[in-house]
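User: For documentation purposes, I need each entry recorded in a consistent format: the amino acid sequence on its own, followed directly by the corresponding structure tokens. There are two entries in this batch. Please keep commentary to a minimum and don't merge the entries.

Assistant: Recorded as requested. Entry 1:
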Amino acid sequence: RNTITPRLVRHFNLLWVPQMSEAAMQGIFGSILSGFLGAHSFPTDVANLASTTVAATIQLYSCMCAEMLPTPSKSHYTFNLRDVSKVVQGLLQITPAKCADAEAFLRLWCHEASRVFSDRLISEADRGWFSTKVSEILHGATGREWPAELFPSLMYGSYMHASDGVANAPYEQLEVAATSTKLDDALSDYNMATTKPMNLVFFRDACHHLARISRVITQPRGCALLVGMGGSGRSSLVRLACAMWEYQCFSIEITRTYDEAAWHDDLKRFMFHAGCKGKPCVLLFSDTQIVKESFVEDINNLLNAGEVPNMMAEEDMSQILNDVRPLAKAAGKGETKDAIYAHFVTLVRQNLHIVLAMSPVGDAFRTRCRMFPSLVNCCTIDWYDAWPRDALLSVAERYFESIDLGGNDVKASIAETVVDMQSSVLQTSDTFFAELRRKTYVTPTSYLELLNLYTSMLAEQREVVARKISHYSGGVRKLVETNAVVDKMKEELTNLQPVLKKAAEDTQTLLKQVAEDQASAEEVKARVKKEEAEVAVISKEAGEIAADAQRDLDEAMPAFHSAVKALKSLNKSDIQEMKAYKQPPELVQLVLEAVCILLGKKPSWDEAKKLMSDMGFLQSLQDFDKDNIEPKKIKSIQKYVQNESFQADTVGKVSKAAKSLCLWVRAMDTYDRVAKTVEPKKAKLAEAKAKLSEAEAMLKEKQAMLADVEARVRGLRETLETTQSKARELEEQEKDTKVKLARADKLVGGLGSEKTRWEALCKSLEEGQRNLVGNMVVCSGAIAYQGPFTASYRAKLNAAWVSKVKSLGMACADNPTVGNVLGDPVIVREWGIHG
């Protein structure tokens, strides 16, 4: 401690504040407790214990201050008046329903005293002294003789009814079995709601630690200091407790650029949540997150005063004033700036529960306890011991639940083995320190690392060994199969010779047959080509005749169609017009006489009038058989047709109907003249077509014959190609078989000696596979624990572990080391090559 010099003291008036007397403490805390018990209508025998329990608490506090003095390894063994108040505060949590008699109240007092005083003790000896002292004080105050072994098993809490809220959840005595079930359910709910699930085992100590954390964070201004080795479950239990009470659990994220400004920003965020929103929350802070020692100083200020001096900027103060003013007004506080800020600090102290997780290893914890006393004075301390045997066994059994180890008996044996490994390493580390003065820490993290290593390495080595066995046994099998294949190829090569000879003979026969058929096909093809030329000439002549006849017809047909069209244009009135002539014009009479001649009537006007009187006159002209006109009629109408006035245009000037009839007469004359010219041509055309049909029939027959011959030739060629392809394939097969035989002879000859070695390796690997479960537990322990030890200590540990494994009936090699079990000779040789 720094000495205050007289030069400094002379400037001040010194006031010494002595420690509060026991009578004063009895009066204060007795009044508080008796008032609480009376106001809540507790039974009389319970209410009468108020002054007794306060006196016992003060006596216990005095004994702790006198006997449990701080040392370098027990730097947190400092006690003050806050400890007495914490015991009384714990008693005030009980309700009449959960405290029916004086026995229940005394059990509660023993529990609260243990939480405040005993939980910080670091050794079983100190805790035994405490339990004995509580038993003595209890006997002296109440006359009751309770065994000292009763106190460590007492457990109270309200988290069994956490869903009812902090205010409504009853504070009651708990049993480990029921608590474990409740915590398993809470862990399942937590893992379903988070992206970082936890795998926890709730053994007895874990249940007690979680109950202590829950007790602290549900008390106003409750803060905790959890002291234990890494991996003991401090942070996990805090997060689970927060989840059960639906508290926000804050923690900082350390990055490379995390500095004091970022730390203050995070602190503001936590304080605003607790003070401005008025919601309970937990700040989980670990010693691994201490980037600068100033972080711990800020935590010390928060614990002691509820604020960090000079941290709030103007805009932060404005936010605090705006958000907290309604809360301060509702609480009956003033609305001045100082009053509102004071209420903000009060809310922060009530709602922000700081939980510190620190490790006792080294000098850092002792130094911080000395430099920052609020870490001890303002926190309820919970010291985490090394996991007991039942805890180690429970964790191992949980880890091995889903792993195939060959049966439940083997799992139980492996679990017992890893527990003994942890214990043996703890003993060896003590011996190591005593003999060589080198300290080795064995933490729960080491044990968890052992379990993780074992499960992962066992799975990996099972795969590696199975792959090697498959590799070598596959090599032996391949050699056997290769020998069989070589014998089969030799047999196939012998059987292939006559097949090759027969294929060559068949090819020659087919070549000769194809040549003969090809020559025959060429002869037929030449004849067909000649006949095709002749048919083409005949076809050309027939076409010319048909074209000539068609030209003649094209001359007559337009006139005929024109005449028919003109006839169709006539109607009854046109005919009546001509019939009305008594003495027709000369041209009209000429036209009608010509019509009468063609229709076989007498060429006179009277006969013409009779014809025109017929209703079917015009239709008979349209249906007139133009192809069979008698030559006599054609001859008779020549004098009319050759008359220069007998023209349609000339006649049309006299009569429209006569014009149409004139056109018809001239069309019949033209058609008959053309038909006589075309008829011989039609006969000649018919003769040419008949000749063409006969020639085409003969040509078709020859073409069919040619197609048959060509199809036969194609079939023979395809057969020849198939035969030649088959012959080539057989030749390639023979060549390939010879090459394979040569290579197989080299392979079998070269690897013949390897077969024996591979079979021996397979046998060795199969034996290693049987010993794998035992070998891997020894190797995992070597990797997890033996690093800090020298060779002689490693050998002793290995021998002890192998003896333990074999004593439990598990298969194991005589000396399974990391090198001979996990090492690969090829890789080790490469390491040697590279130095």
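Entry 2:
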Amino acid sequence: MRATVSWQDAPPDRDGLRSVCYDVAYKPDGSQLVTGLGNRVLVYGCQDGALLHSLKAHKDAVYAVSWSFEGSRFASGGADKTIIIWTSEAEGILKYNHNESVQCLAFNPCLMQLASATASDFGLWAPEQKSVQKHKVSSKVLCMGWTKDGQHLALGQYDGCVSVRDRTGGEKVKIQRGAPVWSLAWNPNKRETHDVMAVGCWDGTLSFYQLNGMQVGDDTRLGFDPCSVSYFGGGDYVVVGGTDKMARLCSKEGTVLTTLCERGSWVWCARARPGHNAIAVGSEDGSISTHTLTFSTVHGMYKELYAYRDLMTDVIVQQLETDQKVRIRCKDYVKKIAVYKDKLAVQLPDKLVIYQKIESDDPDDMQYRMMTTIEDDLKCNLLVITSHHVILCMEKKLLLYTMEGKKERTWSMDSVIRYIKVNGGPEKGEGVLVGLKDGMCLKIFIDNDFPMELVNHGASVRCLDMSAFRKKLAVVDDNSAVVVYDVKTKAVLFEGKGANSVAFNSVYEDMFCYAGDGILSIKTADFPVHTQNLEGFAVGFKASKIYCLHNISMQTVVVPHSWSVKNYIKKGDFDGAYAVACLGVTNKDFMNLGLAAHWGMNLEVARKCFIRCRDMKYIDLVADTEEGLKKGEPPFMFRALSLAYQRKFHEAAKEYAEGGRADKAMEMFTDMRMFDEAKVWAEEYAKTHGGGDISLTDFVNRQAEWAEETSDYESAVNMYVQAKKFEKAVALVGKNNWRDKLVEIMRVLDVKDDAKVIQQCAGHFARWGDSSHAKEAYNKLGDHAGLMTLHVQQNQWDDAFALLKQHPEYAEKVHLPYANWLADNDRFDEARGAYR
């Protein structure tokens, strides 16, 4: 991690008093910083360190300051035995006194209640009280602090006693230390199950206690006397300042991690800025400085296994695909991490620890055991691990060590090494990619003394990666350029800009991604680059998952390859499209690919896609297509059938027509009972291809048949007439006794072509007793015998004998039936004459 000075100030001595910064306090929103220097109270703006107020209200040195929990007030107290309460606008509104110098102040974190302490007592003030409640103490109070819930107050005393009081001042717990307790602080983390207090004693120790007085862990030997102890990062860390003139960062368990800053004299106070990674430091020489802390990411990655530092002392190994995690507590400052297969290397300040994953039948079980330790402070810039070795990078050198700490090999480079990465290989013979500042890209094998040159990029290398089959090398340089080379020919295959990282797809040779400037770019084969918004670094790419490191967190970004599949389809490369689709696309994409492959008659890819979609209809279509092609049927027949399956009926009809099988189009429409669409298409086809309306007539006839099947007889009759299927129309009309409709049909029939149908019409009229229209039908036919039979059947004897005069050849058809009629009507004499 790194600490940089944001701003600093060193006000001169005034009014004959030394300017010593004993205490600082941040406003809860982190916008202002208040401190006491000499007899003045200073208020600074935190953004740029501008002095907002210089308040001269105390008559002697100011020892303590504190902000109320909601930021409306702050308080100051000091050697003049006076406490002043100020508004946030720096207006003094209240003053009260102690009998001795005020040593420390602390506002309750939950209530408007102020605690103040001197060498002989401490007081509790609240706005609703008429007077300050004061309580005697056994020794001089040097520091104080409230628990996060504001229910208990701890007093650190000169005699080494820590007295824990309730909110009314009653003592609940007493902790005895062996030296003056100069500083203490309660952990503000609300997720902690117990209230934990950090205690800094002037015997050079840092210790921790629970609210009940039980010590947590052992004392931490600091090597100096702590003057200030405060929590940082929401309670994850402790900042300690003291007589060694430094402010240090410790873990919440007390492990000293790193030095944050070094001042010119004792550090009396160091406080965290709320909501920011920053601290304010006050010193004996009167200087005030604020420092911004930048936490660097310490991590290692191998395929989907990601290991990273947490809380500076822990290592978390995460399986990115399953998001399973395991925490390894190193209990020391973690400087470097490397991971490879089942090995994990963790560099601590004075040793290198190697862990090995415990073999288990459960693939989700992630447990590591300590394998070996190299007891040496191995200085290095970069660290990687292989199956049996660790490799340390020191400027221009790579050092190869066994797991037991024996140095086996050294490689010396001509330039500073900027990047190293294990690139797989057999055990004890792994390859390592090396990128140099002068642009040289190398590959070394750990069992070989001689590096192998890959390409000379010409610009300082920032990141390297190799494709799955080791045929391509991607380089990102300090100019944010990304270049992909053919390893064998050294030819440039691709150039891009705005990159901070690059990663090849580990399961697909012709795909890689690079990130930078808030954009993630994905390049597949020779297709255009696909981009989407994404902050961070692309550190891994497998199938459809891109692993992106943003700040200190790893994100898994799922990127469906739909656009690549579409590009392959446009190119007609269905095998390539299927290979990319298998990396991760939706069922819809597989269906579209299957349809496109079927259209292109790549039936193997089509079958695979439809099987993935579990669509039996299209699987059967592929089988039918294969069988049909073997029989010599043209491909267009099955393309049209595929379109019909997709309900693209007009396109299917067009495909049939272009193949010369318009009849199949008609069959399709009628099978689907899409008669209106059939008419429109048939008319269009007739116009574009010439010819009459045969196709249309056929459609209408089929539509009529469908109407008849569904008992829509009236529509069926009309459509049969339209299709000139008069016989069927007349049969339906006769069945339904529609006399008027039959007359209409009979009158449009042609005697030459439809004589049989007219005969049927006459029969229906006769059956109904409609002799008038029956006569019309027979007359239209010129059927005198039929007309004669009609007259006889209707007992229309006058008409019958009149017709007989014209056609005497029908005498037998008239006389005998007439005689029978007369006999039936008791007209026997007339009947005898007729018989003769």
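Summary note for entry 2:
The mean pLDDT is 90.
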